Automatic annotation (TrEMBL), chains A, B:
The lineage of its organism: Bacteria, Pseudomonadati, Pseudomonadota, Gammaproteobacteria, Orbales. This is Thiamin/hydroxymethyl pyrimidine-binding YkoF putative domain-containing protein. Pfam families: Ykof. Residues 20-98, 126-204 form the Thiamin/hydroxymethyl pyrimidine-binding YkoF putative domain. InterPro entries: MTH1187/YkoF-like, Thiamin/HMP-bd_put_YkoF.
Amino acid sequence: MSNLSSCSSACGTQGAVDVTGCRFSLYPMTDQFVEVIVSAIHKLNTEKVWAQTDHLSTLYRGKQLHVIDCVRAAFIYAYQPNLHMVSELTFSRGCPGDVDADSFLNTDDIANNLITIPQGKNIPVSAKISFYAFGVDSYMSHIQHVVELAHKYQLSPQKAHYVTMINGSASQIFAYFDEVLAYARQHLPHYVLEATLSVNSPSKVMEN
Amino acid sequence: MSNLSSCSSACGTQGAVDVTGCRFSLYPMTDQFVEVIVSAIHKLNTEKVWAQTDHLSTLYRGKQLHVIDCVRAAFIYAYQPNLHMVSELTFSRGCPGDVDADSFLNTDDIANNLITIPQGKNIPVSAKISFYAFGVDSYMSHIQHVVELAHKYQLSPQKAHYVTMINGSASQIFAYFDEVLAYARQHLPHYVLEATLSVNSPSKVMEN
């Protein structure tokens, strides 16, 4: 557990730093959930991110491209064709109380995992996302832009209460997240992207 | 799926309405996840909330006390002593594009489920929460207040990157959520409380 003050916690007032982070969890709905999670995490190359696992989630911090690379790879490694699995991701950057500790920023820009695994083009994903921008009056316009970007990746965004629903391959969805975060980094001091990804949901059963 | 514009989606500009909502999901890590979820949902009395289930989550909208009552009861009904389960909850109120449709506001204040089930005093829960306030410059001070409130409920809040970790019984945690939302409703035009609750996590295994 970090002792650092950070966001949604007890932030200080120092300037924001250029660390992108993602706190993520995998929820495989199987009796073998431990094996699925541990096996996926152990396959990752995490040498270009600061990494920490606790009893609720795993946290990666560093350059945006490496953070995305690691969570995409973890999701793809954990995926099994007949297994219902949900993954919860919280991307964040710019909390006023954040610090540049707990991060690796002096790395090159070669995504270590992407070059060794498939991009997830054949993994169909249903997801809900929420984009939050802080400290600006125009936050709704940034949300609107993020939703519009989903069309570019053929994710068919659908409005719903509190979230936007999207559908696409894992490859499309993580590429979309990458562009959303790049847009946010360029335009906003502090933002959060919350996403929940679901694969192989027996939705017809669940909706009855 | 609702066709309404709502938050993190494509909000309009009409005034905010007094509807509290919660989008929540249950993730039981078992081969029998469908039975666990469906059984819990069917036990609920949801006559005082507007309810909708899709392939990703269930949504309740209405008065705050009834929304809390339903998600607490769903969590308690789904709980099993030896089953690792995670629940993801997004409480929200005040999106500029929200509307008072899809809600039940003309109800009494008697919590239907709480009077028929235990409050969850014997269910130990580990959770992470993030509180987000929008459209105000002082958002960090409201986050700070929400974190401080956790002490009142003996939840031992711990700072971590992007979230605050809390620990307590299900009863304590939902009572805390109720007070957080009451505080937010009084002080903020638009807010979101994201929470992830975990029970029976084999954390020592997972952290190795």
